[in-house]
């Protein structure tokens, strides 16, 4: 009897895995899947044991995004959703600032980052001391801080924004001038859409800063009719050469609603793989710039995080209150 039940359990698990593979078959070759199956099976089991949910950013690889995650989205959606999580444990399949934001929004939960080295060139470009100096230099000018920053930098700020709501946040303040930190290109792209004067910092995303208008011209020449969508962390000349610019969620919505015949996403590579799974009729042209930080998160790292409950994200209580206030102000806009 025991053996029969065990056999049935194994068979059900295998059928479940087969169904998961059906989802990603078009972007994950069978050879690669063979290396993923064991970790996926273990992660599904560990999630039950630990009462854990996995939040995954749109740049996570398809076997994470489509096979083990419970909630997926852009930075804004992940911040909102983190607030609502009821489970005991949140595993952030994303970068460190995203895990910190989840902890800020739901402090009683254990938030795990599967690889604490998963940083961000934007978050690294500015310190709390820099923000204090900016305040001294521009007294009375509100500081709007991109969520791609440490909790300590958020704590020195007036309000946060993401690429999905940056213009709305800036305009909500009702002032003629704001400081927008740390992404120079996001600040310049927002400045092109608003009458509010925007003072920028000099941080860049190491993935998006590499795209050039010449890349867009070459893509259009090689793939006639291609619709070009870019992320607002790209240089303004790249955004100007694109057909549409928006956060990763806005790009997903664009593809879902318009179903372009052929599209290119000027952003991190995995985004196209994830959307290709959902939109089999759309042809994705794929110039590839990988985020090395996002790519530190693997199935193996997630499994290890759940097995060992590492690495828990802790935020200094002296910064948590003020950092949370900046994120909450953004969510209220
Ligand atoms: P989104 O908020 O658009 O998901 O972007 C996050 C990010 O890190 C982009 O590089
Ligand atoms: Fe940071 Fe750029 Fe990676 Fe996003 S893609 S996490 S902004 S380095």
UniProtKB/TrEMBL annotation:
Domain of life: Bacteria
Pathway it works in: Cofactor biosynthesis; NAD(+) biosynthesis; quinolinate from iminoaspartate: step 1/1
Free-text remark on how the cofactor is bound: Binds 1 [4Fe-4S] cluster per subunit.
Any one GO molecular function term: metal ion binding
Keywords: 4Fe-4S, Cytoplasm, Iron, Iron-sulfur, Metal-binding, Pyridine nucleotide biosynthesis, Transferase
Localization per Swiss-Prot or TrEMBL: Cytoplasm
Cofactor annotation: [4Fe-4S] cluster
Function: Catalyzes the condensation of iminoaspartate with dihydroxyacetone phosphate to form quinolinate.
Alphabetical list of NCBIfam families matching this protein: nadA, PRK09375.1-2, PRK09375.1-4
Record's protein name: Quinolinate synthase
Organism of derivation: Endobacter medicaginis
Lineage, top ranks: Bacteria, Pseudomonadati, Pseudomonadota, Alphaproteobacteria, Acetobacterales
């Amino acid at each position: 009897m025991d053996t029969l039940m065990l056999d049935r359990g194994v068979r059900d698990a295998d059928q479940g895995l087969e169904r998961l593979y059906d989802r990603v078959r078009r972007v994950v070759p069978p050879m690669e899947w063979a290396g993923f199956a064991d970790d996926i099976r273990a992660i599904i089991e560990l999630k039950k044991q630990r009462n854990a949910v996995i939040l995954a950013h749109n740049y996570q690889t398809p076997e994470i995004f489509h096979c083990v995650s419970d909630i997926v989205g852009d930075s804004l959606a992940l911040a909102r959703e983190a607030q609502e999580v009821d489970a005991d444990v949140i595993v952030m399949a994303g970068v460190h600032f995203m895990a910190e934001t989840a902890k800020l929004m739901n402090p009683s939960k254990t938030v795990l980052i599967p690889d604490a080295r998963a940083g961000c060139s934007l978050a690294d470009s500015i310190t709390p001391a820099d923000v204090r100096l900016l305040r001294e230099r521009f007294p009375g000018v509100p500081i709007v801080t991109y969520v791609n920053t440490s909790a300590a930098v958020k704590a020195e700020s007036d309000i946060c924004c993401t690429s999905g709501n940056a213009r709305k946040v800036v305009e909500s303040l009702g002032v003629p001038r704001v400081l927008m930190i740390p992404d120079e290109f996001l600040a310049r792209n927002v400045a092109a859409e608003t009458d509010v004067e925007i003072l920028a910092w000099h941080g860049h995303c190491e993935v998006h800063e590499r795209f050039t208008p010449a890349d867009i011209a070459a893509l259009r020449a090689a793939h006639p009719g291609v619709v070009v969508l870019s992320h607002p962390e790209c240089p303004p000349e790249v955004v100007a050469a694109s057909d549409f610019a928006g956060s990763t969620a806005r790009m997903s919505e664009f593809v879902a609603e318009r179903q372009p015949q052929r599209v290119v996403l000027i952003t991190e590579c995995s985004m196209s793989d994830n959307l290709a799974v959902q939109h089999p009729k759309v042809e994705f042209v794929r110039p590839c710039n990988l985020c090395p930080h996002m790519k530190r998160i693997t199935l193996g790292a997630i499994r290890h995080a759940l097995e060992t409950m590492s690495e828990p994200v802790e935020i200094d209580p002296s910064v948590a209150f003020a950092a949370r206030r900046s994120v909450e102000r953004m969510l209220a806009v």
